Recover the amino acids of this structure.
């Protein structure tokens, strides 16, 4: 069987599993969707308590400009992440040049840098009195601090640049995986027929990568849309900043919830539309098509350009902010030593991020399996709903989640008190369970989407074979899917973990008393303007975030391993 | 599949056990919800615990403090709510999240105009909204807030977002004094004078003045202390030294605009007595001195001196417009800033 590419409708090939497991999958997916909807119900509760009094002012003075700014920001970031993400993925996946093995994983490093850290690092480094401009002026003999025409970071353009260079890995990761997994038969055929590397990329590789690009870009755009740290700091008035202003400056959680819900409805509609538009695009690699793609060795000049193209994003998205943090942290450690509680914060961050990652990945695997194994028409809408948490700004999600969560907590507390007379307090919020729940709701779609795209590359004939041989759904998952999905699961787990480590607004609002993580500490210091004190913890976030990137890199050479593994283990497949 | 599930189960149980081991209602404790940065409130709480033996548990919340206390409801562990900006204190009271406290110690330590008549909230420190001017390029000795809209400063003014509470509070004060139309004209004038987009923090104003991006700007008084004292590192000393601080008044000359930080006892406080003790401690001469030294704020307690760096800025005369009047105009101030597209 040859590779399945765009155009062939998937549903006919998908395995339905009549009877066995269908009810479990449906109920489980419904529960996941309900969990994801909980914070939205909280927002509805707040919204309904308010009047509509703020809308005339918003429509007249805020929304037109904020919508335009948001749109431009999304367009700009979308363009940058697509070009960098797809371009570097294509280079490292299909070409040989010096340093490629290093670039393969180093291109992921900007993931570890939170946007708020990025914003204050660049503001400092690129400021007229900062090192870059001072150095350049000294070089050119300019004495006037304003004499150097240097782009202003505190602008829409600055925000697009900064967010673009830290968010492109969301595109790079799935697109590279897709290039590696897809059969190269078509590419080789194109080349044999005389297509140069350019046309082969444009007409074969790019269309094949479209689902992965769509997933990656939509993740990056949702991150952009929901960013508050960098946008506010750089003075970019997006819709999310408008929500925030209504809530904080005007003390109106009611009005803020109303705006947030309207915005959510639009975003969700757009996401569904995007999904609908590529419903016929399915790329599945067949087991036997999974041989090594033919890599092109680059000639010296081209190799040099390729190295530069891979290095620049890493430099802007990682080397510059990380060096800044190392220097600031060094100065701070030299003055006062390490903060005594540093290891406590590291431990707290690691604990909640790890637990949340395991939970999120398990849920994601369950949902993606449901989508693959049962043909019930209700399953797709439930899965899409369960991912809605990613479409809400973290700070809004957190405050919405407070309503059902604290309600449940009070129910438990009052129940226990009436039964035993003990005052146990609020156990969900008090134990940190609230945090883990918030992370899972927020990042579930990363897990589901990543695993789904992994599934798309496993031919349905594998499932059919397993069924014919009498495997149960559990056995199919455990013995066939999970091993084959391991690269996709590892990649999704890394994204979720790093996101949990960086997550700030929900952590601030939902954590228990005395519970400090790296991110909350950094924010506390940055809010006070003592960035240097926060630099050590910020560096720790980046370092801890690098760990999964490096682990993934070590297994990353197994990118093509899914198919290789299959050949080894299932020699008798059709 | 089974093993990860066990891990989750185990973690959940562990988390519950850990949670149960943090007794929110134990004797000898007090739980503080604060929007003040931990670096500011920690020294105060540590001193309090040392002196009284009462353990202070704390959580720093940026936004949503009111929502958290409200949704936690009757079982909320919160005892003391500590916030910055008078408007936030009023919001807590308006949402019914506070309870009145009668204490002779507090009445004696805090001037009447800086606390609620019914004891729903208490001001604990003050900060003035002052003008940062370039030492080299601005020669004026005295300026009013209104001067910031003077066309002679065209392209020379730096300020943080018009939506930041420090600015909305200043604008609200002007609305309370001069009315909406005059304030709108002023705000438009300041906007037209901006050297760069409104944004960043107050310290960025000083840095931008050092860099020559602007000549004049607005910032809070305590940042001057934080910068000049070297607490923010050697670079910030340079920023602080690049500016001259002018304590401005409104054009009526009555005084400088001041905002407060303060605290209130939560309505459902499980440790009410300890919360009151903590409040009384925060108003004591000792704690007021920490406010002055650690964060360069003006103490509210008469007789406690400001830090020498702050005292050197000149004698502070507080604008007499009542805080309650200013708070009423807060929402209008925020809307005005949007109406004139202050933040671009």
């Amino acid at each position: 069987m040859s590779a399945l590419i765009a155009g062939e409708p998937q549903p006919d090939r998908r395995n339905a599993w009549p009877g066995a497991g269908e009810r479990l999958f449906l109920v489980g997916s419904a529960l996941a969707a309900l969990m994801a909807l909980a914070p939205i119900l909280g927002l509805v509760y707040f919204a309904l308590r308010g009047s509509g009094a703020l809308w005339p002012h918003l429509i007249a003075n805020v929304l037109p400009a904020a919508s335009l700014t948001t749109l431009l920001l999304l367009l700009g970031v979308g363009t940058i992440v697509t070009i960098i993400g797809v371009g570097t993925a294509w280079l490292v996946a299909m070409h040989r040049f010096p340093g490629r093995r290093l670039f393969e994983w180093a291109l992921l490093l900007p993931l570890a840098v939170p946007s708020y850290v990025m914003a204050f690092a660049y503001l400092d480094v690129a400021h007229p009195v900062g090192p870059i401009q001072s150095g350049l002026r000294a070089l050119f003999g300019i004495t006037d601090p304003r004499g150097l025409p240097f782009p202003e970071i505190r602008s829409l353009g600055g925000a697009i640049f900064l967010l673009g260079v830290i968010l492109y890995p969301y595109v790079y990761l799935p697109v590279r995986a897709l290039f590696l997994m897809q059969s190269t038969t078509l590419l080789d055929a194109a080349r044999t027929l005389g297509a140069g590397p350019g046309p082969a990329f444009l007409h074969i590789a790019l269309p094949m990568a479209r689902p992965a690009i769509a997933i990656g870009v939509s993740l990056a755009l949702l991150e952009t849309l929901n960013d508050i740290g960098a946008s506010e700091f750089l003075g970019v008035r997006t819709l999310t900043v408008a929500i925030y202003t209504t809530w904080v400056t005007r003390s109106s959680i009611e009005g803020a919830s109303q705006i947030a819900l309207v915005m959510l409805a639009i975003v969700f509609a757009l996401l569904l539309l995007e999904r609908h538009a590529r419903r016929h695009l399915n790329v599945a690699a067949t087991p036997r098509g999974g041989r090594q793609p033919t890599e092109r060795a680059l000639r010296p000049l081209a190799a040099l350009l390729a190295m530069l193209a891979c290095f620049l994003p890493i430099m802007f998205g990682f080397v510059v902010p990380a060096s800044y943090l190392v220097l600031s942290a060094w100065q701070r450690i030299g003055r006062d030593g390490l903060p005594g509680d540093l290891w406590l914060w590291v431990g707290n961050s690691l604990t909640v991020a790890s637990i949340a990652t395991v939970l999120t990945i398990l849920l994601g695997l369950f949902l993606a399996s449901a989508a693959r194994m049962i043909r019930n028409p209700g399953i797709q809408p439930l899965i899409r709903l369960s991912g809605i948490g990613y479409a809400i700004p973290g700070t809004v999600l957190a405050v919405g989640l407070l309503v059902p969560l604290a309600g449940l907590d009070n129910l438990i507390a009052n129940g226990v008190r009436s039964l035993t007379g003990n005052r146990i307090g609020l156990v969900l919020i008090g134990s940190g369970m609230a945090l883990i729940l918030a992370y899972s709701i927020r990042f579930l779609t990363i897990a589901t989407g990543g695993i789904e795209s992994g599934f798309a590359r496993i031919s349905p004939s594998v499932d059919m074979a397993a069924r014919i041989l009498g495997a149960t759904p559990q056995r199919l998952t455990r013995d066939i899917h999970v091993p084959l999905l391991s690269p996709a699961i590892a990649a999704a787990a890394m994204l979720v973990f790093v996101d949990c480590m960086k997550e700030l607004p929900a952590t601030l609002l939902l954590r228990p008393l005395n519970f400090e993580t790296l991110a909350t500490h950094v924010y506390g210091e940055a809010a006070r303007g003592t960035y240097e004190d926060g630099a050590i913890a910020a560096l720790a976030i980046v370092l801890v975030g690098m760990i999964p990137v490096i682990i993934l890199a070590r297994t990353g050479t197994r990118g093509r391993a899914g198919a290789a593994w299959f050949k080894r283990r299932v020699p008798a497949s059709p | 599949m089974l093993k990860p599930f066990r891990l989750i189960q185990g973690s959940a149980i562990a988390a519950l056990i850990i949670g149960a081991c943090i007794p929110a209602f134990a004797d000898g404790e007090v739980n503080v919800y604060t929007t003040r940065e931990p670096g500011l409130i920690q020294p105060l709480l540590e001193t309090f615990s040392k002196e009284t033996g009462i353990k202070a548990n704390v959580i720093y919340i940026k936004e949503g403090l009111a929502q958290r206390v409200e949704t936690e409801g009757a079982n909320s562990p919160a005892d003391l709510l500590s916030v910055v900006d008078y408007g936030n204190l009023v919001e807590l009271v308006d949402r019914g999240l506070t309870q009145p406290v009668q204490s002779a110690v507090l009445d004696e330590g805090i001037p009447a105009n800086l606390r609620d008549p019914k004891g729903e909230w208490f001001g604990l420190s003050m900060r003035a909204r002052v003008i940062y001017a370039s030492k080299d390029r601005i020669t004026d000795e005295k300026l009013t807030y209104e001067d910031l809209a003077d066309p002679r400063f065209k392209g020379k003014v730096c300020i943080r977002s018009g939506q930041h509470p420090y600015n909305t509070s200043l604008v609200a004060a002007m609305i309370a004094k001069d009315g909406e139309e005059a304030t709108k004209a002023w705000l438009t004038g300041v906007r037209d004078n901006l050297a760069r987009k409104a944004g960043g923090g107050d310290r960025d104003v000083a840095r931008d003045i050092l860099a020559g991006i602007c000549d004049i700007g607005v910032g809070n008084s305590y940042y001057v202390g934080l910068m000049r004292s070297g607490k923010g590192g050697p670079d910030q000393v340079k920023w602080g030294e690049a500016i001259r601080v002018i304590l401005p008044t409104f054009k009526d000359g009555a005084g400088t605009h001041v905002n407060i930080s303060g605290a209130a006892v939560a309505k459902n406080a499980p440790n009410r007595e300890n919360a009151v003790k903590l409040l009384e401690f925060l108003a004591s001469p000792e704690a007021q001195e920490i406010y002055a030294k650690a964060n360069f704020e003006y103490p509210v307690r008469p007789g406690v001196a400001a830090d020498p760096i702050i005292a050197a800025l000149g004698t502070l005369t507080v604008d007499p417009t009542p805080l309650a009047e200013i708070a009423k105009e807060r929402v209008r101030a925020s809307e005005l800033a949007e109406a004139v597209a202050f933040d671009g």
